[in-house]
TrEMBL record, chains A, B:
<feature type="domain" description="Aldehyde dehydrogenase">
    <location>
        <begin position="12"/>
        <end position="298"/>
    </location>
</feature>
<comment type="pathway">
    <text>Amino-acid biosynthesis; L-proline biosynthesis; L-glutamate 5-semialdehyde from L-glutamate: step 2/2.</text>
</comment>
<comment type="function">
    <text>Catalyzes the NADPH-dependent reduction of L-glutamate 5-phosphate into L-glutamate 5-semialdehyde and phosphate. The product spontaneously undergoes cyclization to form 1-pyrroline-5-carboxylate.</text>
</comment>
<keyword id="KW-0028">Amino-acid biosynthesis</keyword>
<dbReference type="InterPro" id="IPR000965">
    <property type="entry name" value="GPR_dom"/>
</dbReference>
<protein>
    <recommendedName>
        <fullName>Gamma-glutamyl phosphate reductase</fullName>
        <ecNumber>1.2.1.41</ecNumber>
    </recommendedName>
</protein>
<dbReference type="InterPro" id="IPR016161">
    <property type="entry name" value="Ald_DH/histidinol_DH"/>
</dbReference>
<keyword id="KW-0963">Cytoplasm</keyword>
<dbReference type="Pfam" id="PF00171">
    <property type="entry name" value="Aldedh"/>
</dbReference>
<dbReference type="InterPro" id="IPR015590">
    <property type="entry name" value="Aldehyde_DH_dom"/>
</dbReference>
<dbReference type="InterPro" id="IPR020593">
    <property type="entry name" value="G-glutamylP_reductase_CS"/>
</dbReference>
<dbReference type="InterPro" id="IPR012134">
    <property type="entry name" value="Glu-5-SA_DH"/>
</dbReference>
<comment type="similarity">
    <text>Belongs to the gamma-glutamyl phosphate reductase family.</text>
</comment>
<dbReference type="InterPro" id="IPR016163">
    <property type="entry name" value="Ald_DH_C"/>
</dbReference>
<keyword id="KW-0560">Oxidoreductase</keyword>
<keyword id="KW-0641">Proline biosynthesis</keyword>
<keyword id="KW-0521">NADP</keyword>
Length: 428, 428
């Protein structure tokens, strides 16, 4: 007769969450050196067991091809020995980053002599729901471990074999380094039910971070009782002010739109001040044409399109809110900076907006009035990125206002607690 | 023929939220002086129009008495001229606090020459759902205005006349000071439906802060699609370590439990290390008896109760998770500090836990392992409070890990945004 464990009556997802919570309690007080050793062990294990990982990945790739998946997505799914080495190298980079846990965020001695310290602590259990790319599995595990958190990983069904192999390698390394293996778990089950359970595990899971397309993020935001950090949707704007250097404006527009079109910090809408439209738009439309970008133009932009090389279609109201993630851009002429701000506030997803201007007053007003995670002045929207910001790594880009906003590095994976130290202090 | 406004098809609550969002955009860039002037105008108006406020309040009080409301709650509801003066004085104190908006949280020049600044900005629209006390109406409005936020106030139906009068006075003063009056609004309607609508106003309302009993908070947490900051429930513990000064331990226990029993930072459970139980418990039980506290004791505490003056009842498992908010305390003897931590982690609401000890190692281990908003060492649990912490004011005490944890002052009513400044920087 076997003894019943309290876990026996729970669903596999709830069991995983309980185990993660227990592991999180063990991880929280660990010093940096112990966590870094575990990260280095993970990097080594990924390299040593590359064959096992690539073999598992081949099954996912074969299945994807059978299902007629596009080659672009198959490419994102594919792990080669070189890619596994790069992933291992990224884990070593995370080990080199400072540990946010233990940082004294603020501290003072109160008038009554009590010492007050606000100290960074891990969040506890972090759930990540993500799509396709198996490198996220390792990235997320490394960032969560480094910040003292246990992680529940819910990747795409299409990468299940790859993720299973990666998590097995990670868990072995973590356990071998003397840390609880349950600090890193793949959420069991490939069905939608396991996502739903994860979203209801309030009290066990401290935060859910969905990474992926807009519909995944919307679902998690609407259905989760666990607190969610909304990430990633980027309907970014480039506003070319009346007083802008034309060369700079063209260069920033093309870089923001076309340097890489499939990412959340790529520009999706161009707004041009009416006073500079006649000078700027002909140049801009030709440059967009050269970059292979189709312009979804309002009437006033359309007026300049006839004489350009540009591929132009008429903009509909939908264009103003679309995140194309493709070689498309919406474009409009506006009467003033304030009208540009108004347009942005109405349609933006709140990710990144850029202004190109030589006017200090315009730059100041735009940065004051635009309410997005990042406002760029005379710089490409493409800089909104944890790596570019010097954070060393990024778990996602928060487009919400609570907890973290913009690129999230290691400190954004922590909470704080207060330590109140007295010598017998009581309240009068 | 009147022109249709876009608001006409909306419910009153959604209309209020849209108006709040528009007001928030106007408030965000305002400098401190303008906001402080509005706060001082509110304080003056509260004093000038005291009669109007007290008269409205008398209706609520009369209705409460008719409904047989307890005198304690009637007292909390009642506004006298003195109390209105005190509320006005609190508003002047908020005006004296530094403005969190505009604070540069971090900043650096990136290797490519871009200047990066992370700057505090208002959250936008803050919804407060609260019970009974009409002073919260003014407090919340003042703190939100100071931090550049618009506020939607949803007070208790039992204070509707009082809140209506207070908000009318506040809005008149805000408008008179040249700020948008819609920055402060009472959520229309006294029914539960208006709360439900507020909880679904994602995209219009940036955060909901429920203040009140556990069931109100649970409802909001479970049903809201707007991000919620969970506040207030406090099942706080006092742990008396093997190495504790007995006098200090008794004093901290009595202060934590009985200095004011109805508040979230009052102690609800006493845990005593077995090695000090024989020395400490007889003294503690007598002191609790003197303070009028009933002890819900486990078997091992019960053994000491017979010879004491204490009123003692047997503890049930429910006692370990109960926030009494009354002259009651649960009490248990534990085998070790680690067992105390285990008990706390299992049952706590995560508010405040205190250790009484003369051992540096014990203090260090307890503060490392306990995962609550505040860990007190040789100090009363009653210090967990924005006023006590020197924050000047408090909108509530967050017991969750995201965004803010522990007492929330003005900075906790803000988000941040990044300002990226280049001179034509593009990404290569």
């Amino acid at each position: 007769m076997t003894t019943l464990s309290p876990y026996d009556s729970m669903s596999p997802v709830t069991q995983a969450a309980y185990r993660a919570k227990a592991a999180a309690a063990d991880l929280a007080p660990l010093p940096r050196a112990v966590k870094d050793d575990a990260l280095l062990a993970i990097a080594d294990a990924l390299e040593v067991r590359t064959a096992e990982i690539v073999e598992a990945n081949a099954k996912d790739v074969a299945k994807a091809r059978e299902n007629g998946t596009s080659e672009a997505i198959v490419d994102r799914l594919t792990l080669t020995p070189e890619r596994v080495r790069a992933i291992a190298s990224d884990v070593r980079d995370v080990a080199k980053l400072p540990d946010p846990v233990g940082e004294v965020v603020r501290g003072s001695t109160l008038p009554n002599g009590i010492d007050l310290r606000q100290v960074r602590v891990p969040l506890g259990v972090v759930g990540i729901i993500y799509e396709a790319r198996p490198n996220v599995t390792v990235d997320a595990a490394a960032l969560c471990l480094k910040s003292g958190n246990a992680v529940l990983l819910r990747g795409s069904g299409s990468a299940y074999a790859s993720n299973t192999a990666l998590v097995r390698v990670i868990r072995d390394a973590v356990g071998g380094a003397g840390l609880p293996a349950d600090a890193v778990q793949l959420v069991p089950g490939e069905s939608r039910d396991s996502v739903r359970e994860l979203m209801r595990a309030r009290g066990l899971v401290d935060v859910l971070i969905p990474r992926g397309g807009a519909s995944l993020i919307r679902t998690v935001v609407n259905e989760s009782t666990v607190p969610v950090i909304e990430t990633g949707t980027g309907n970014c704007h480039v506003y070319v002010d009346a007083q802008a250097d034309i060369d700079t404006a063209v260069e920033i527009l093309i870089n923001s739109k076309a340097q890489r079109v499939s990412v959340c910090n790529a520009a999706e809408t161009l707004l041009v001040h009416q006073d500079i439209a006649a000078e700027f738009l002909p140049r801009a439309l030709d440059a967009l044409a050269e970059a292979g970008v189709t312009v979804h133009a309002d009437d006033r932009v359309m007026a300049y399109a006839k004489d350009s090389k540009a591929t132009v279609v008429e903009a509909t109201p939908e264009d103003w809110e679309t995140e194309y993630l493709s070689h498309d851009i919406a474009a409009a002429v506006v009467d003033s900076l304030d009208k540009a701000v108004e347009h942005i506030r109405l349609w933006t997803s709140g990710h990144t907006e850029a202004i190109v201007t030589t006017s200090q007053q315009a730059a100041r007003r735009f940065t004051q009035l635009v309410d997005s995670t990042t406002v760029a002045v005379n710089a490409s929207t493409r800089f909104t990125d944890g790596g570019q910001f010097g954070f060393g790594a990024e778990i996602g880009i928060s487009t919400q206002k609570l907890h973290a906003r913009g690129p999230m590095g290691l400190p954004e994976l922590t909470s704080t607690k207060y330590i109140v130290t007295g010598d017998g202090h009581v309240r009068r």
